[in-house]
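Quick illustration, no need to memorize.
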Amino acid sequence: DDHNPHLELTVGARKKISSIIEHLNRKWGNASVASGELALFPYAAYQEHIVGHHSWTLRDSFLSAADVYEAVGRPAVFRL
């Protein structure tokens, strides 16, 4: 496919993860390749090994970007 799933967003530490997911849903929720519920995974979770990795969805409305940054071990480059 001619799809490039790479996307870079700059967000503040207090930005809610659910707000980021809502933004992504507004932008790409109707894409032909989109199906199911959007979830964010740690960068190290490869598609074939997603089971067992923590993920974040719209239901995580109480978590901020800083909370997720802590949960993934405060990496030098924060990627999901």
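The CA atoms of residues 15 and 64 lie 5 Å apart.
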